[in-house]
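Weekend entry, working from home. Most of the wet-lab plans are on hold until the incubator is repaired, so I used the time to fold the two sequences that have been sitting in the queue since the last round of cloning. Logging both here for the record. First:
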Amino acid sequence: MNILLLSNNAPNYHHFFKALVSLYARDGATVTVAVDSRFARRHNRLDELTFAPIHEFETYFVNHRTDPSVLARYADFNLNSALLSDFERAQVYGVWDTRADLDYFDRLKSALLSFFEEIFDRYSIDTVIYENVSNAFAHFALFVAQRRGAAYMGFTGSRLPGRFAITSDPLEDDATARNFEAIRSGALVPGPDVRHWAGEYLSRIETITPDYMKINGLDRISLFRRYFRRDRLAQLAALLRHIGDNRTDAFQIGNPLRTYWGLFSRNVGRRLRVSRVRRLYQQPVEGERFLLYPMHFHPEASTSILAGSFLDEYEVIRNIAFNLPEGVRLYVKDHISAWAYPTLDFYRRLRALPNVRLLPPEAPTKQLIKKSLAVITLTSTVGYEALLLKKRVFLYGRVFYEFHKGVTRIESPARLHELLMRHIDRPVDWDDAYNLDFVCAYYEATLPGTLNLLQGPEPAEKMASEVYAVLAALHGHEVKAAVTA
């Protein structure tokens, strides 16, 4: 097994992935590391992986000239779309120099493809290991992996408690759909334990919170607890070593000091506008007919990759507001992890729209789903939960539950009024048995374990051992289990 580990500045993720590939190397796999920048290499202590050669994209990119032939070879892939996730991050956090031009983006695409092609060819890579495809660095590695016939193992949490998933192409994540078709046809028969688990889960769906919402910590707005800690001093010292870095050579982190200042400033701005945002929230009106729209966190893959065409949520909400059937409101519920990050002007413009009520993040989501006519969403977990609560979902983006018969895809915003008029009052035409099979199909597409990539070294190593044991059992070979009690 020839593994390529991807690494970047995602906080703490490196603890889990370094521990995981160390277990693979111990059992005979060869490992190579591709890292986005010099900063991430040092910050993630990648040189501790003494068995693995390390390749820095930043160094490669500085000396790369655009190669039209490599762009032509991959012209059947949507290379420009794959840049959107990092473009959004760069805009939100002030990562890139504003002078980046069209030639820069062509050179970036060319460099990423050439960089990964050379690594794949030199080391005969057959497996890429990283999180789910969430940025351009990973997306271009996926393109080369697909062209070379290699596997992409993207580790990610799932909506099911105590289950995680391994995904490949985020836009072709059809494992649940294939399982569901197999269950319905009789080709796949979930065991009694799986059906029991799914039944218990459905019976408690109104009180269950997905694991990722419990561990991301993004709902905390305190600046003191976030920044005034001893470990932040060491981080500041590391950032100061990169004070003169170019803002575009390391395209994901830019100049680390400037980028972290952008992160800090964003959180300060959030804290300062909290009370004023609070005053703009409204409350539901009893007896009102409404669609529920859950806002998303930005920037993240669920929007920039899975719903990139609808990235501007104000534009999406405005289009809905002006295409609602008569007598129907739109309840826009703020996101618990993202509220007060947008500007006051954003919230005021939402409040000014006809037919829109702006709800606070702590508004009871499950109760709102049950009282709604339907949910309308980009890719939200709220859409998934609505289906389990037997409410229709109007869906803009791409997500694993899109095949469910309760989902209506929004292909053209220009035809939204017609779509809503035709489907909003349609009676539910799926039953408990359908939802049970749906959850079983999703369960079969996931693996046991709670994947928290934000943990420190010791719990990350324990988690990596547990995950490795699960993967070994899945692939039918033994490993030297390093799971601690």
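Second, folded right after the first finished:
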Amino acid sequence: IVISFFLVSFIVSCLLSLIKESLYGSVDDLDIIKSNLNANFLNVISLDDDDISSRILDINISKVQDTKKNKNFIGNIGFYFLKTNTIITNYINSNKDIKYIDIFESNQIKDFQNIFIFIESGKITNKEINKINKYIELYPNKDFYWIYVENEKLF
């Protein structure tokens, strides 16, 4: 009886999970996003600690700027995010070389060599991932990077 209830509850929970994902379309699994998004994955930051997250952003942006082909570009970084968290907003406001862009506006993509995409856990859909991949295909000479933003407490 215990085994049968375990199997039935496991199957029901899997079905409910699939139904939820298909209805809402949001993806919150980092590995699924990594496998589906064609941009370069950089790092994971957390909304819990502004100081550590800002330092991680500084390190990753410096790595991108230090590449040989980016030496000639000044102000070449555009950020895309959903404007839902203050860490990224404060970071952009404190760095004049970084601009907010709407990745779904192709005119803004043309102005930047490096585009950083911030994906907050549970707030991106498969449809948006596919749309970002289409823009990546349209602009093969641009460099697209993404950073995963955890909005859950780790401890």
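Plan for Monday: verify the second prediction. The CA atoms of residues 25 and 125 lie 5 Å apart.
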